[in-house]
Design goal:
The structure is a homodimer.
Chain A: H1 11-18, H2 21-32, H3 35-40, H4 46-53, H5 57-69, E1 73-76, E2 79-82, H6 84-89, H7 102-105, H8 108-115, H9 117-123, H10 138-147, H11 153-162, E3 171-176, H12 182-190, E4 194-200, H13 202-214, E5 221-225, E6 237-243, H14 251-264, E7 265-275, H15 286-298, H16 307-316, E8 321-326, E9 333-338
Parallel strand pairs in A: 3-4, 3-6, 4-5, 6-7
Antiparallel strand pairs in A: 1-2, 7-9, 8-9
Helix pairs in contact in A: 2-5, 4-5, 10-13, 11-12
């Protein structure tokens, strides 16, 4: 339940905050039962939705009511329909469907680490027994690569545009901690003269290679398995993509990585960073600012850094200047950093 | 993070719903560190709050930012203060403090059962290995009795007023599934001529007896350990209190209990039911309607019943008429049912 915004304090908002985890569970269950697709296909009552999803009528009725309260469904005269977010992002027949994200965002490591949040606040970093999630953990990062690709669509197009992919000039692009590889692959799809080099741990790069194959850019896609901090990155790159990586590390580690990126770029090359970048107050905008807690729970020293912090780190690493570009409708922003001034 | 209410669908709202469980974790951690009390006592920066709570500055800064995003704290020029909900309900020095609720609402059984929500929807009832939470489970219900008393204050006063406690007439009150006992105890405190009989499982009644002692009404407080369905309830009661019990059961079971209540009442006696009562649409008001999912996850056949459903069940059990009374600022309502018309 959303916290009610009554003017006066009531126990109800606290009660609902205690129960906020139930919203996550309801979304995950709707996805696991593929209930949104069933409703998108026309099932609109508990019996018809139950028949399509193999669930009980009683369970479906209660879940659909809850999803209606959350705004994912609408309910009129006992008939359910998809709300606009669900129609676009949760129906598997929608090209923008994000349902696969449940594989990463609902992974057991998140719940485990957030169950230890009190200890993480005491300590100032993750209290998870697996330690920092910046270590090679195939369980986590293959799940990431397999799950999160659909979420990249708006940002990947935005980045491809920022690097002038449609102009079609020959260029070399390095994709650091590529994951699913979709950022580099999107550049390659839009620019037939782009060569992509992807760095990530071996098991994760297998997913990126599959995606490059599926996008018919495998011939211009080179995998360099290894850590972004240790693998030979090569050099002479026009662009280096750093998508959702800095937030895992403390500032000295970010600077260290950015110095490697600086060396790998051509003299007029640019680093392109995708990140959750809160305002200086660190409490707005909410999703970018709130991302910091995810890093506290999951990493030793990661954070959602402000633009001023990034600008300084990147300057320390040798970059002449950086500029911030908001992405329409996304909680992340892009920082373009020029090697030369 | 609250789901943003932009007009157009964005991935951000889905992303935030996947992460809603983090709001629960942040609240729980704030309570476990007693951070709200520390801020209430004047600590207002990460170093001073860290010193008072024994936590790290970095962890405190990130947690306080997150709690500010949630609206529990405010942040101005890097200084935190309690938001109005936190000041009233989360500072342990506030008489209305609800912090102890974390003992029940954050109990491991809730997370366990919600982790099995998909199976519960398939089955139409709890998939928890402990089975239905209506069985005598001391772990759960002693935690309830120890944790939830502060939340009863508004409803207990409302109920005491409904049963005319301040008029001070001699009366016998039966408190079914008394838990912490606060509903009956509040009547006894306001009416020195009220005799209270409390029914619950033995370990739970120990908590009620402690509370009766603390309220100086133990001399008029009788414990009858056992199940509400099997214990000898006695008879000749003016009022029977049924607070937050029916939602655990299916309709035939509710009727069965209400027939026992009918027998226990004097001819002009009244049953007083406290419940989450959604409107006929079952999706409003949000907290009462959403309570149904909690019962799906935790019980075999419980639900948040509408007033029409209660009215019919209670009529079937012999009650002449029932009337619904909303409680100001609370998500629950009171149903007063008259044995005779």
């Amino acid at each position: 339940m959303a916290t009610p915004t009554t003017g006066r304090p009531t126990p109800e908002s606290i009660f609902n905050l205690f129960n906020a985890f139930q919203n996550t569970a309801a979304l995950r269950t709707g996805i696991e039962l593929d209930l949104f697709t069933a409703i998108g296909e026309g099932a609109n009552t508990p019996p018809s939705i139950a028949a399509k999803t193999g669930a009980s009528e009683r369970g479906v009725r209660i879940l659909c009511d809850y999803l209606s309260i959350l705004g994912l469904l609408t309910k009129e005269q006992g008939h359910y329909a998809l709300g606009q977010d669900a129609a676009v992002f949760l129906d598997r027949k929608s090209p923008a469907c994000l349902a696969s994200m449940t594989g990463f965002l609902s992974g057991p490591w998140h719940q485990r680490n957030f169950n230890l949040l009190t200890e993480a606040v005491r300590k100032g970093g993750t209290a998870g027994s697996e330690g920092d999630n910046t270590k090679p953990q195939d369980e986590v990062w293959v799940a990431f690569a397999r799950s999160m690709a659909p979420l990249t669509i708006p940002a990947a197009s935005f980045i491809a545009q920022l690097v002038g992919a449609k102009e079609g000039k020959a260029c070399k692009v390095l994709d650091i901690a590529a994951g699913h590889g979709m950022y580099g692959i999107t550049v390659a799809k839009q620019n037939p003269h782009a060569q992509i080099v992807a760095v990530d741990w071996p098991a994760v790069l297998e997913v990126a290679k599959e995606n490059a194959q599926a996008a018919a850019v495998a011939g211009r896609y080179t995998a360099r398995p290894g850590s972004a901090f240790e693998a030979a990155l090569g050099d002479g790159y026009d662009h280096v993509l750093l998508t959702n990586i800095f937030h895992h590390f403390d500032k000295p580690t970010c600077e260290k990585l950015m110095r490697r990126v600086h060396s790998a770029l051509k003299p007029d090359g640019r680093a392109v960073t995708l990140e959750f970048v809160p305002n200086e107050d660190r409490v707005t905008p909410p999703t970018a600012a709130g991302f910091s807690l995810i890093m506290l729970a999951n990493t030793e020293g990661g954070d959602a850094y402000t633009f001023a912090e990034y600008e300084k780190m990147f300057r320390n690493a040798g970059f002449a200047k950086s500029a911030l570009h908001p992405i329409p409708d996304m909680p992340q922003q892009v920082i373009v950093s020029e090697k030369a001034g």
